[in-house]
Every structure is written in C-alpha cells, then in structure tokens.
Amino acid sequence: MTPADYRLIAAAIVxxxxxxxxxxxxxxxxxxxxxxxxxxxxxxxGLPMEETAKAVxxxxxxxxxxxxxxxxxxxxxGAMLQLSDGAGGLARAALRLSGARGAPWASLLTAxxxxxxxxxxxxxxxxxxxxxxxxxxxPAGQNGDTAKLRLMLPALSGLSVVHALVPPHPGPLxxxxxxxxxxxxxxxxxxxxxxxxxxxxxxLLARFTAPGVKxxxxxLDPVRADVPTPSVGRALTAVLLPVVLIAAGQAVALMPAxxxxxxxxxxxxxxxxxxxxxxxxxxxPLLFGRRITESRIQGAIWTEAMTPAGGIxxxxxxxxxxxxVLVTAGLSDLLVRLADGGAISPLVLAWGVSVCIRLATGxxxxxxxxxxxxMQGLVAASGVEPEWMVxxxxxxSLFFSHVNDPxxxxxxxxxxxxxxxxxxxxxxxxxxxxxxxLLLVMLASSIF
Length: 448
Fold this sequence. Notes:
Elements: H1 3-24, H2 30-45, H3 49-83, H4 86-115, H5 120-136, H6 145-165, H7 170-179, H8 183-209, H9 232-252, H10 257-260, H11 265-269, H12 272-288, H13 295-306, H14 309-329, H15 331-339, H16 346-361, H17 364-374, H18 376-382, H19 386-396, H20 406-415, H21 419-447
Organism: Sphingobium soli
Family: Belongs to the GntP permease family.
InterPro entries: Glcn_transporter
C-alpha cells in the first residue's frame, strides 16, 4: 500500500459518503447528489478536472445509451398493460391459479422463467408492473404495503439471481469465456445454486424485511383507459414477445454454423432495445385494437410512461457517472492488487474481490468482468473447477446494492419505497443473495 493507494481509498469513501449525505440529509435529487460525489472522488483522488469530467460523461453516456432506452420502452409497454387493464387481467388469472397464499411463490417462479433470457433492467420493467397489479388485486385486508412487498421482492430475487449466476446474461457469459468454463455446466450449476438462493432471499426473507416498510403511490398509477380489457392471451403475448425475441437470439449461438447463418437476423432482433420496440409496436393493436389511432389513447399511454421516466433516467445516468470516475481513478485495480496472493480459499477470494469492486463501482457486470480477468491464473494454479469460480464471482457481484448502483434507483422507483425502505428490502436482499450464493457454491463444489 502506497500513499497514493490510501488517498484513492479515502477519496472513494468520502465521495460515496457525500452522495449519501446529500441525498438523505440534504434532500437533493439523486441526480445532483451522485454527480457531486463523482466530482468529489475525482478531485480528492488527484484526477485532473478535465479527465474527471470526461469520465462523468462516459459513465453517464454508457449507462443511458442502453439502459435509458430500455427504461423508456419498458415504461411504455408497462403503461399500455396498465391502461388497457392487460396487467390486471394477467394478475387476476395468476391469482386464480395460485391463490393469495401461493402468490409470492408464483411471483418468484415467473421472475426466474422470464428473467432467464432478459437483462435485469428489461425483466424489471416488464415484470414489476404486473406483480404490482397482482398485489393490488389481493383480497381486501391482504393488499397492504407488507403484502405488496411480499409479492414484489420475490420477483426481484428471481431476476437478480439469474442476472448474476446464469448465462447468457452478460456478466456470467463473459466470466465463462475469461476462465474457460463450460457454458452448459455453468448454466446447470447456476440454476442448481440459484433456485434455492432465490427462495431464501425472496419469499422467505421478505417475511422479515417487508413489515414496516411504507410504499408511495406506484410508478404507474392504476389509471384505466376507456377500452375493453384484452384477453389473457393478448396480454400474455404482449409481455412474452420481447422474452421470445431475446431467447431466439440466444438460441442462434447454439445452432451449427451452417444453420445459424440463415438466422443471423435474429441476433439483431434479439437486442433488448429492438425487442422492446417491436413488442411496443405489436402491443398497441393487441391491447387497444382500432382505438390506437385516437390521439387521446396515445396521449394517455405516453404521458403515463414518460412522466416518471425523466427522474429515473437522470438518477441512473448519475450513478453510472460515479461508477466510471471510481473506475478511472483506479480503485478497481487497487482492490484486485490487495487481494492478490492471500492464503484463502480461491472461491472465497474471488467472491471477496468481486464484493469489493461491486461496492466501489456499483456495477455487478464490472465486478464480474474485472474479477474474472484477474482470476485466470488462480484457476489454473488451484485446480478449482472454473464453473464454480464463475458462480462465486457472480454471487459476490450482487453484494449490498447502494447509491452508486443504477439498479438501486431503478428498483427504488418501481417499488415505491423511500431510501430507508430500499436499503431494508432491496439492499439486504442482494446481500443475502451474495452470501447464500457463496455458501451454496462452496457446498456444491465439495460434492460434485
């Protein structure tokens, strides 16, 4: 550890602490608080102001370039499902099948299935409006804030687990390539570890974290347009179309080269932004019929969608800016150097490095990619199966989501929780996923 290293650690701590204080105590919008924290990190770490500004622009641009469009299109699709009562119809059908007691488990299973081919943000904007509608449709006396959270938190648990542990999500897939792991085995082991992890961190944990948390009005208010409720089949088609398109694109990679060349167009259509755009265009006639040409209907859809979009997208962009300044200042590299050469289990070491980078940068994908890159030699030297190393890194990449994680603000907005409530529910849930995931990886790796 050099004086420069200590200075960098102090800069990161002060910058993140300043962001938290400005947001919680100063009541500033997260967009402003996070930007102040980003520039503070750069200033204290010794980065030139010009380089800090470029890092802020790069981080915000990289996040908004993909996630911003996903959020906007997902909000549009969610608004259509809400205004047409398509989401309500799906919720009522699901409740008839599962009943009120089984609803949290149905929410978890749906999230795992839908989340398999989806990016976390895509699954979130598609699934939570439906789960929120299901919560609102619970019988009288069973639809309070606690009951609603006990439906929504399992969905988040399912989405988080498949995002971190199951290819073809970008983090696990890149770690598979970096460590030379077998893709099929990693997917199988990921599900084997992920399903019990999601159960513990979802329906079971929510019994303890949900009580006492108050919810603000939902992101998409239950406003109805004067149109007939679409059939369950039509609503389900609107929801599953982007899932099918994205899954079809992933299937191309599994085809023989001679066959895959004829389906190359699926790789383009399966991009989350394109898939959501196609789904939005198809959902209009499916959910509203001929009335899609009415300006009143179109105005209601995009007013409902875009009213909350600005604040969410700005907060996400500022979170990306803070992450990039931390990365540019060299904190990720420092944490990796500090973990090198310790006398500790390779799986625990990989998990710990991933945790440190996750806490510093706020990005699960950055934590996974960075950790996997520096663990290549350790995998070869220790003899640990690379598939288990991929999963240990993925579990650590979820540890304690906080204000420098763009997902923190996205989840906060969709749940309708305040800052304290988001920490109590979402941040604790992510931490439990990380810890339980590691324990199950270590247990399973000793058996198989």
